[in-house]
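Predict the 3D structure for this chain.
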Amino acid sequence: MAAELDVLVVGAGFAGLYMVHRARGLGLSVEAVDAADGVGGTWWWNRYPGARCDVPSLEYSYGFDDDLQQEWEWTERYATQPEILSYLEHVADRFDLRSHLTLGTRIDRLSFDEDELRWRIHLDDGSARSARFVVMATGCLSAANMPDIAGADDFVGRTFHTGRWPHDPVDFAGRRVAVIGTGSSGVQSIPIIAEQAAHLTVFQRTPAYAVPAHNGPLHPADVAEIKADYRNWRAVARDSRPGYGGHVPRPELSALSVSDEERTAAYDTRWEHGGLLFLGAFNDLLLNTEANDTAADYLRARIAEVVDDPATAEMLSPDTIVGCKRLCLDSGYFATYNRDDVDLVDISASPIDRIEAGGIVVDGRLHEVDDIVFATGFDAMTGALDRIHIEGRDGRTLRDAWAAGPTTLLGLQVAGFPNLFTVTGPGSPSVLTNMVSSIEHHVDWISDVLASMTTQGRTTVEATEAAQQEWVAWVNAVADLTLFPSCNSWYLGANVPGKPRVFMPLPGFPDYVAHCTTVAESDYPGFTFG
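Done. Predicted structure below.
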């Protein structure tokens, strides 16, 4: 017999833990299943050297419980992976969530029983569950993307992926190390690995824009000021476009409306402050190519100031739109290339030919290495969902429904898959925001739906096809007003061969939240109830 539940949650990271907490608060029977052996989601898997968040820790944290946010003490402006993981372990213990968790177990199959109006869940340990609702809290950056490079299995050294890092310490001392990839995980790990290794070779396909993190210990007086009115402080922060940083002034000026001196001064101010809000210096940096060019020129000039060798600085200088790919935070990344024991190999024009037993071959030349680190990111937003067999009405799989690209209503439900919710799914702001802000908003919205259905005696909830098509068209229209779709980024799935090129997140967090509120207050138009 399959164990019967009201709610089955897939994932035990920020989203999964909060969903368990909210469902239990509604008096619903709930269980969360996660393949990891512990809680934390993305922060359980990503243990690579230098791993830390790029959203300030006082905002990249839960705001649902006043006592929790008062008692937890963050130590740094940008928290490290170990500290974030400790925080999530504390949350699991503090709210007694572990009794609702099944860890170290994968879900193989989800199928909707149209007669019983329940989801049938099959786990890889041979057990089964039956649930009225399923909440996919699988995370947007949780399915590691391993490139298909000829000869990879022939390599005799050690290989690692930043998104699946070993739990035991990795010692690179005295070893020749290759890092493939210069996105966020590469930018964070490369300076640390360079300090440890005998020699580091970085293989770069596309250079990354990066601004200083200026990370450091949090000042007690600053923390006390925030905690004195934490709830209101969060409300202001989450009313900003990315769902954080609302207290940093955001001039409503075009980069083209000021003098060169004023523009440079504005960029200097953001550079000295550090962080991703550099893009908030002007209101049109992600709307107007000419305005964006001014930011790109500024950042390229900064790279040239740091990197001693002009040829290397040129290789590290992107020629793309600033922000159409995820902006990175620099904690010694560019300065690393001034080391004599670090080489940069450009693989944009001449990709990696193959991997051999002793190293990596590019343009006929063998680069001998002892270890290879794949900092090649994730199959973002849809990858974790795609790796589970999910079967809705009439036996249609989610994989088939999304064959031409993901379609949702509000990023929360998919037509033909009743009572299945996707937390921070495609079609919602998700990865363009502070993820914890988006997660809490979605979990609260889903919880309100479940409470409403219980009160009104409704059995199923499902997005209609017409509303879903209208929403997808709206998401595409908003994205097309911006520069986001202008380069091949993981926002479009361009880093995964064969994945449909569709811009998946929706820019504009506050407007989205307001729209979701209107939908709920209007008894959920676009959704049908049984």
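The first strand starts at residue 3 and ends at 10.
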